[in-house]
């Protein structure tokens, strides 16, 4: 069994065939998934999906693109959502200096507040970091973040090693299968396997075999096959390792 640690199955892209999508995931060996909020409405929908489907758990948070919506009221809403059954993380929260859809200072403030919220509630933190590697790591250190997942890791080996030194988890998504992404493949080859997770980030970032199509949880298997190849381990062993890691981080119930 595999766990998709970062999906957006609550998005409207899955409205026409959500049940069928989940069935395909189960058939592919994807036993559980964490569907992740990126603003308040998406977080509410993530919680609703977790309540409706037994294989779904939820993360609730405000993405840096929506950082300007983060205020005391939004934080109270997140706090309430985070206390609902099957909510296992705060996030995705972080910094995005690629698109800069919110001022950088505003992004940093919203990120700091969500780090503190995760600590207050004793929940892991799902981090979005795009073109803001050093700033992200600095804020995580300043706020004494714990139980951190750097989702869809896009840094270099030096950054990965620093994250592992701190005890952070890294999740690997479809880009590890892209022909030009040798940097990520080298990170996987040298990965701390007790801090390694897998994700789709669906409907985004499909593996190479599905480029140009909607990504979905069943496609995690293609990413897993490449990661297993890079590590030189059987696919079943990778499933055991990454499932154990995901259960530890998100405190998921044991299989069966």
What would you note in describing this structure?
- With 256 residues, this protein is of the alpha/beta class.
- It has a single domain (2-250), classed as Metal-dependent hydrolases (TIM Barrel, Alpha-Beta Barrel), CATH 3.20.20.
- It has helices spanning 18-27, 40-52, 72-82, 104-121, 133-142, 157-166, 182-189, 220-231, 235-250; strands at residues 2-7, 30-36, 56-60, 87-96, 125-130, 148-150, 169-172, 196-198.
- Strands 1-2-3-4-5-6-7-8 form an eight-stranded parallel beta sheet.
- Helix 2 packs parallel to helix 3 and helix 8 (220-231) crosses helix 9 (235-250).
What's a concise summary of this model?
The chain is of the alpha/beta class.
Q: Any key phrases for this structure?
A:
8 strands; 256 residues; alpha/beta; eight-stranded parallel sheet
* Highest-level CATH class: Alpha Beta
Mean pLDDT: 97
What is the C-alpha radius of gyration, as a whole number of Å? 17 Å
Terminus-to-terminus distance = 11 Å
Question: What's the structural blueprint in terms of helices and strands?
Answer:
Blueprint: E1 2-7, H1 18-27, E2 30-36, H2 40-52, E3 56-60, H3 72-82, E4 87-96, H4 104-121, E5 125-130, H5 133-142, E6 148-150, H6 157-166, E7 169-172, H7 182-189, E8 196-198, H8 220-231, H9 235-250
Parallel strand pairs: 1-2, 2-3, 3-4, 4-5, 5-6, 6-7, 7-8
Helix pairs in contact: 2-3, 8-9
């Amino acid at each position: 069994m595999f766990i998709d640690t970062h999906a957006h199955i609550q998005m409207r892209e899955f409205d026409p065939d959500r049940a069928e999508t989940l069935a395909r995931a189960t058939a592919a060996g994807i036993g559980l998934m964490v569907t992740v909020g990126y603003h308040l409405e998406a977080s509410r929908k993530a919680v609703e999906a977790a309540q409706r489907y037994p294989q779904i758990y939820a993360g609730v948070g405000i993405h840096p693109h929506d950082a300007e919506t983060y205020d005391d009221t939004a934080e109270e809403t997140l706090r309430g959502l985070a206390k609902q059954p099957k909510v296992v993380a705060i996030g995705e929260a972080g910094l995005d200096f690629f698109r800069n859809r919110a001022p950088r200072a505003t992004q940093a403030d919203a990120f700091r507040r969500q780090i503190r919220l995760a600590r207050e509630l004793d929940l892991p933190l799902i981090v979005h970091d795009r073109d803001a590697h050093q700033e992200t790591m600095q804020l995580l250190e300043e706020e004494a973040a714990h139980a951190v997942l750097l989702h869809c890791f896009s840094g270099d080996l030096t950054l990965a090693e620093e994250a592992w030194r701190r005890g952070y988890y890294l999740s690997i998504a479809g880009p590890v299968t892209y022909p030009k992404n040798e940097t990520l493949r080298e990170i996987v080859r040298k990965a701390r396997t007790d801090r390694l997770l897998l994700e789709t980030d669906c409907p985004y970032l499909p593996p190479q075999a599905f480029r140009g199509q909607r990504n979905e949880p069943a496609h995690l298997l293609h990413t897993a096959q490449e990661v297993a190849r890079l590590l030189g381990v059987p696919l079943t062993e990778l499933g055991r390792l990454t499932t154990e890691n995901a259960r530890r981080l998100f405190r998921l119930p044991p299989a069966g």
